[in-house]
Amino acid sequence: MRGYSTSLGNEESLRLLLIMKFRHLDSISDMKRPYSSCNSTPNIDFTDLTCPHTWYPKARRKHRKIVLHVGPTNSGKTYHALKQLESSHSGMYCGPLRLLAWEVAKRLNKARVPCNLITGQERDEVDGAKHKAVTVEMADVDSNYHCAVIDEIQMLGCKTRGFSFTRALLGIAADELHLCGDAAAVPLIQEILKVTGDEVEVQYYERLSPLVPLKVPLGSFSNVQTGDCIVTFSRHEIYRIKKKIQSDGKHLCSVVYGSLPPETRTRQATLFNDASSECDVLVASDAIGMGLNLNISRIIFSTMKKFDGVETRDLTVSEIKQIAGRAGRYNSNFPIGEVTCLHEDDLPLLHSSLKSPSPTLERAGLFPPFDLMYMYSRLHTKSGFHQILKVAAVIDEFPLGLHEKYLFCISPAQMDDEILSQGLIQFAENYSKKGLVRLREIFTPGTLQVPKTAAGLQELESIHKVLDLYVWLSFRLEDSFPDQELAASQKAICNMLIEEFLEGQGWQKPMLRRLSLRRSSLRSSFS
C-alpha cells in the first residue's frame, strides 16, 4: 500500500507535510499547507487536503468518545478494549494484520457474539452478525457502530500504511472508539482530534509480566535453550541460523518472517507453541512484533541492525521494545521474559533502549479518498493519473478509467518484488485490453512444486502474493476477475508446499511446468 505522510508538529499552527513516496519511483513530492478547522467554510473544497476530518461527515455528526489504551507489549491494553467491543450492541475491530482479524473474529464467535471476518482477500459472514473484524484498510466509514477498536494505532505513522489508520481514526462513525497501541502516539492523536470535537480519554497500562534484560550475551548458538527466539532481519540469515542450531541435533526450529503467507506463519507459530512438538526454538524476523501469540522464554537479537529498504541502520527504540516485549507472555509457559543479544557489543544499545521512552510520533499518513481524487481530476482534465498520485507511471499508460487506476494503485502489491510487480502490471494490461482477466493467462494450475532452495522458496512466496492480489482484485472487480476460487485453491497449495519445505521432509510433487509470467513484456512496460 502507498500513501502520503502527514507531519503534525507542535508548532503554533498545525501543518501537514504531504509526502508521496513510492519504492519504484525515485522522486519524493513534498507539499506543506496549514491544517485548519475549516469551521468557517460552509462548502467543502474537495481539493483541500488540509481538512481531512471533513472527508467523513457521518463521523463528524457524532460526538464520539475516544479511549486510548496505551502501554507496552503484554500489558492487557487490547484485552480491555476487546471486552468493550464484545459487550457492545454492534461493533468493528480494525487490525493491521489478517492474523489479528482472524483471531478477534474467532474470539467473538466463540463468546457467542456473531462476528463477520472481512479482509482484502476474504469474506466470512455469519448469520445475524452485527460485529465485524477487519484489516484496517477495510474499515467501514459508511455505517454507524456502537463500539469500534483500532489496534496498533501507532502505525498511523507508517510511511506505507499509515494513511489507513488515519482514515479509520477520523472516519469510523462509532459512539465509542477504542485505540490500542504505544504511548508515543498519544500527543499526535490528541493534536489530530482537536478539530473533531470528540471526547478523548487516555488509559495507561503497565506490563503484566516481568521482562529481564540479561547482562550476558548468548555468545554461541550452542547455548540456545527450549523456548528461545533468535531474531534476525533477512531470509538468508533466518535459514543460516536455523541450520546452525539444528546441526547439533538438540533442537528443531520453526521460522516466522514477513513474506511467509499468513497461514504458514500461523502454522509455524503453532508448532513452536505446542509443547508436544519437536520444534522448540523459533528463528524469526521482526514479524513476531505483532499478530502472533507466542510462548517465548527468551528473545535473542542476533544483530541490532537491519536494512530498511534504503540503508542498513541501528534498530530504533520502538523496534527493540516491540520485539523484546514478546518474551514472557502473561499466563504462558514462560511468565518471566528474558532478552539478550548474540554478541556482547550489542548489549549497550539493547539496555539503553529498554530504559528509554519511545520517541513521540510526529507524522500520520494521509491519502485522499477516491471522491476527492475524482473531483481533482475533473478540475484538472489535462493531468494524467500519475500527475495526481505520482505513482502510476506504468498504470497511467493503460486506457483505464480513473476508478480502475485508483484500485490498481492502492492494491497490496510491493513494486520491489519483481514477480509481484509483473503480476500487477499484467493484470492491469489485460484488464485494459479486454475488461476480463483470466488467471490462466499468466498462471498454469498444477505447475507448483516444493522448492528445493531458499531462492525457490522466495519465488513461491512471490507467486502466493500474485495469487493473493488476484483474489483482492476479484472482490473489487468481480465480473472482470472471475477466477477467485481457482486463485484461492492455488494459494492453499502454495501454503502447503511452503510448509513442506519448512518442515524439511524432502517430499516432492511430480515435476510440472512452472509459473509463466511474461517477464520480457512486463519489463518493457518500464522502459
UniProtKB/TrEMBL annotation:
SUPFAM superfamilies: P-loop containing nucleoside triphosphate hydrolases (SSF52540). Keywords: ATP-binding, Helicase, Hydrolase, Mitochondrion, Mitochondrion nucleoid, Nucleotide-binding, Transit peptide. Its main location: mitochondrion. The keyword Secreted does not apply. It is found in: Mitochondrion matrix, Mitochondrion nucleoid. PROSITE patterns: HELICASE_CTER (PS51194). It catalyses: ATP + H2O = ADP + phosphate + H(+). The keyword Hydrolase applies. GO terms for biological process: mitochondrial RNA 3'-end processing. Its EC number is 3.6.4.13. Transmembrane segments: none annotated. Residues 200-374 form the Helicase C-terminal domain. GO terms for molecular function: ATP binding; hydrolase activity; RNA helicase activity. InterPro entries: DEXQc_SUV3, Helicase_C-like, P-loop_NTPase, RNA-DNA_Helicase, SUV3_C, Suv3_C_1, Suv3_DEXQc. One of its GO terms (cellular component) is mitochondrial degradosome. Its cofactor is Mg(2+); Mn(2+). Pfam families: DEXQc_Suv3 (PF22527), Helicase_C (PF00271), SUV3_C (PF12513), Suv3_C_1 (PF18147). PANTHER family: ATP-DEPENDENT RNA AND DNA HELICASE (PTHR12131), ATP-DEPENDENT RNA HELICASE SUPV3L1, MITOCHONDRIAL-RELATED (PTHR12131:SF1). Homodimer; in free form. Component of the mitochondrial degradosome (mtEXO) complex which is a heteropentamer containing 2 copies of SUPV3L1 and 3 copies of PNPT1. Belongs to the DExH box helicase family. This is RNA helicase. It comes from Quillaja saponaria.
